[in-house]
Amino acid sequence: MNGDLVVQRPEGLYCPPGDFYIDPWRPVGRAVITHAHADHARVGHGHYLAATPSEGVLRARLGRELNLMTLPYGERITHHGVTVSLHPAGHVLGSAQVRLECGGQVWVASGDYKVAPDPTCAAFEPVRCEVFITESTFGLPIYRWLPDEELFADMNAWWAANAAAGRASVLACYSFGKAQRILAGVDPAIGPIVVHGAVEPLNRAYREAGVALPPTALVTDIPDKASLRRALVLCPPSATASTWLRRFGDSSVAFASGWMQLRGARRRGGYDRGFVLSDHADWPGLHRAIAATGASRVIVTHGSVPVMVRHLTEQGLRAEAFATEYGDDRIEADLEPPAA
After folding, report:
1. Mean pLDDT throughout 96-118?
2. Of 22, 155, 310, 321, which has fewest CB within 10 angstroms of its CB?
């Protein structure tokens, strides 16, 4: 052991004294999972540990028979001398930062996180540590999110204008996390809300976890097809290029993603509108989160890694990078808009 509580291995990020991995991308015996997005939670591990609120979405995605142990936020367990606790990351339902304490050291692996408020998941909780492992998905100064009230006012106005014109409002978004955040923010009085079959099982898991969402329906469950002309339709980006979309007739198609901050992203994707909405921290949010930990050493895992490492080094921190496979599923991890 080199003294570090987390090191790189071909299977993923490994805790040597505890003999377990954090979000490994190859099958391992013991995995601590920060959240249920597919680049962080994969099938094939022998035993899983995750935050209690994530159980429903993990089982919906990885299988009901998953060998899963859950831990309430803030509760501590000790494994091979390493004290482990999970703390809210604010990313999606059940997302967690992993705090490790051993031999007088405290490390925190954040997974993915968001510091903006979100009614569909527990708010990000800064955790003091000496070493902080951070993402940098949107780790460039250009990325700065609008307040939710402005964003959803714009989204509701777009939906209402389409409904008045008898045109369906199709909004492409990731099925887990993004769709539910949109549902919690829009005005359901404008019209019916229809969701793709990939979205509804996740809605069910959120509702079972106590998250309030407006009523949603599959297109096959709508008896009055004329009402589809006033509907908001949430679907994965891939569905916008499929025959499924034809069921709604005339429609306006938009995409919700942090990548809509980039000029040309909406045009390249062929969308009528783009809404800048992300489940990741923006540039100011990343730096507020890092500063709040008090860490003197920061390890960057994925995203705009060189920029983030250079900036943190200029701020007087010891900054470096881990090579990971997070974000390989580009659309699912909200890492770039779909190709045209």
Report:
1. 97
2. 310
Alpha-carbon span 86 to 71, nearest angstrom: 7
Q: Which one of 3.30.300, 3.40.50, 2.60.40, 1.10.10 gives the CATH number of domain 148-275? A: 3.40.50
C-alpha–C-alpha distance, residues 93 and 57, integer Å: 8
Q: 94's torsion region: left (phi>0), alpha (psi -120 to 50) or beta?
A: left
Q: Which CATH number fits domain 7-142+279-321: 3.60.15.10, 1.10.8.50, 3.50.50.60, 3.40.50.2300?
A: 3.60.15.10
Do residues 61 and 41 touch, judged by C-beta distance below 8 A? yes
Burial 268-279 (b: 16+ CB within 10 A, else e): ebebebbbbbbb
Angle between helices 200-208 and 178-185 (to 10 degrees): 70
The mean per-residue pLDDT over the stretch 285-293 comes to 98
Tell me the C-alpha distance between 32 and 36, whole Å.
Answer: 11
Predicted model pTM: 0.94
Mean pLDDT of 111-132: 97
Query: Domain spans of the chain?
Result: 7-142+279-321, 148-275
Q: What is the DSSP string of 152-213?
A: HHHHHHHHHHHHHTT-EEEEE--TTTHHHHHHHHS-GGGS-EEE-TTTHHHHHHHHHTT---
At 153-187, the pLDDT tens digits run 999 999 999 999 999 999 999 999 999 999 999 99
Closest CA to 322 of 1, 21, 6, 8: 8
> How big is the chain by its Cα radius of gyration, in Å?
20
